[in-house]
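cache lookup: miss for this entity combination. No prior model stored, computing from scratch. Input as submitted by user K.M.:
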Amino acid sequence: MYTFSNKLRTFSFILMILGLLGVGYGFMTSHKSFEDVEHLLEAEAHHGGGHAEEATHHQAPAHNTHDNAEHNTHNAADAHADEHTKHVEHVMHQIANRPWAALYVAAFFFMMIALGTLAFYAIQIASQAGWSPVLFRIMEAITAYVLPGAIIVLLIAIASGTIGHYNLFIWMDPEVVAHDKLIQGKTGFLNLTGFTIRGIVFIAGWAAYRHFARKFSIAQDTADDNSNYKKSFRIAAGFLVFFIYTESMMSWDWIMSVDPHWFSTLFGWYVFASMFVSGITTIALITLYLKTKGYLEFVNENHLHDVAKFMFAISIFWTYLWFSQFMLIWYSNIPEEVTYFIARFNDYKLPFLGMVVLNFVFPILMLMSADYKRVPWFVVMTGLVILLGHYIDVFNMIMPATVGDRWSVGIPEISSILLFAGLFIFVVFTALTKAPLLVKRYPFRKESEEFHY
Amino acid sequence: MEASKVIHAIYNDDDVLMSAVKKVKAEKHHIEEIYTPFPVHGLDKAMGLAPTRIAITAFMYGLVGLTVAITMMNFIMIKDWPQNIGGKPSFSYIENMPAFVPIMFELTVFFAAHLMVITFYLRSRMWPFKKAENPDPRTTDDHFLMEIAVHGNESELENLLKQTGAVEINLVDKEAH
């Protein structure tokens, strides 16, 4: 049995408290008045070289030059004042969105680790893998975060459209929809009621599978026959079918709809690859942590090698999907699709291209050698880079639609990560204490213990 | 041609062969060669063979392929005749790079795969019309053969090999290759 060390528990609480304070600070400072934003924009225009200036803002330079030359006709001045108000309001909205988006990105990132692990776990059972049963309890513990994590994501999404000012999903704003023919055409799918019901169905399905898989797994420990194993095999197969539908729809709902004018057919797969590789990486990191604490004598470097192979292969798979999505849109260059990448290329160049280095170039070079895959600190280092890369991936999916060129990595972003990292650690390691770390009587347990590559 | 004497010990089970290899290695005899009809897992480790470096060559061949692809397309599409083809930006390689990635990928794989296979053929001396080096045709079907060089210690070796479960022990002249 694993005992949650007091040090780690305290650490997770410190993370949560620091995170909460930072998130609170982010929300407190994000509500700027019209005049504040006006002053901010003027200051930026004078300083030059600020964030906003690098971006190609259509109105900003135009009206600034007007500002300086204060001899306009009345008509032009009126139009200009109108445009100015619009611009300031736009920026004000972006600034107000930032803590929401930062919270949402971090919440989604940790939820997606747990959900990716759940899919990996179901695949291991359905494929009757012989190497992984010694890691099942770790996977089960990580998936304990699916239910709280997904509920938090859904709540943030709904809250942004009810108590917030439509800070994440502009299609939730009736004002916007009234003036937007494109969104009007999608209201059959994009409406708050449907969004909520779908979200509840997804979460209920995932949590139900997780609940029963865990129950059968624990029951199998003390059973006299393999009936629990057979049940868990059957529900794993059923869950995988359910999962691939709901995961795809979840990615439209929870991520793609932040850009309600844009759509991509392989988006669901792309998000899946991101969550899958993050989940596998987290399995490796937690396994190595527990091993250094002496809880996993039955896990050897061969298991590590297999997990690292998955990290390597799925990193490449993610890149394949990322590139396929990017290249098809770049190549055909259809205006209604390509704006998605233009926004990211103009305002998010470093995160957009940096994540390809973190998620592809780094793992492919670090984990190609069979020897390196067996060295714990190498896998840990690469794993941390992969997780960082996939955080940035989610960041790149959400931020351009919510805060636009007003993005930055500061207190709201970092404290949101701390908050959910603390919660994740707390939930996962608490779940680890609830059952022995090695499955008993699982049909492939012996094979897994003696697994060597 | 200098002729030397070798002992051919024949086994009919791969587990017996494995334990025999370990015993012969423990007695510090040098095993010249082992002929098996199929890969015996762990035999190379038991014999103490050095690990293969073919994966390293494949990696380098892949880099060669990538370089070939980049150099070729940079010359053809950007330097030599930068046409406007459907509005694609042929001003610099990086601007038009996404369109080149499929070829970069395929040539990397092509070079890595083919050159590695050719390296394998060269290194293992395999080619069409090559005279088969097979001391006993049964080793391609269901027998395993261990070849040990003899340096005047025939009877000692024969005793040892008999203990290891060899079904047949032959002392033969071998032409040096």
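stored under new cache key. Chain A has one domain: 6-30+99-449.
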